[in-house]
Design a protein that fits this description.
By secondary structure, the chain is an alpha+beta fold. Helices cover about 40% and strands about 15% of the residues. Belongs to the cytochrome P450 family. InterPro entries: Cyt_P450, Cyt_P450_CS, Cyt_P450_E_grp-IV, Cyt_P450_sf, Plant_metabolite_P450s.
Length: about 120
């Protein structure tokens, strides 16, 4: 952070160096960045169960990381992005293959995995 090759006067406190200028193109980009993640709305009309959803999504991702090994096709992932109305998405979908890490018997009897499967079934509806 204090590299003089990167920053002018690196030892001085200047938080404005991280702010973008207010030119029209950059201002619009800043607004897009602010709206890039609003899955549950906000304010008075926001989803009342958003904290529950965040907890379930976090638990689901944790269980999927714990129970499976993940492999991707190819050696490199293309991380290009594209803008859709209010979201930022990957320009090219990520395709991966889950491989079970624990035995099938343990998976079938795992209450957490049964919850994950129920959530996936609900999302597919």
């Amino acid at each position: 952070m204090r590299d003089p090759n990167v920053w002018e006067n690196p030892l001085e406190f200047k938080p404005e160096r991280f702010l973008t200028s207010s030119s029209s193109g950059q201002e619009e980009e800043r607004k897009r960045q602010a709206l890039k993640y609003l899955p549950f709305g906000s304010g008075r009309r926001g989803c009342p169960a958003s904290s529950l959803a965040y907890m379930i999504v976090g638990t689901t991702i944790g269980m999927m990381v714990q129970c499976f090994d993940w492999s991707i096709k190819g050696e490199k992932v293309n991380m290009d992005e594209c803008f859709k109305e209010f979201t930022r998405a990957m320009a090219y979908p990520l395709t991966f293959t889950p491989v079970t890490r624990i035995s099938t018997f343990d998976l079938e009897n795992s209450l957490n995995l049964q919850i994950i499967i129920m959530i996936i079934d609900i999302v597919d509806l």
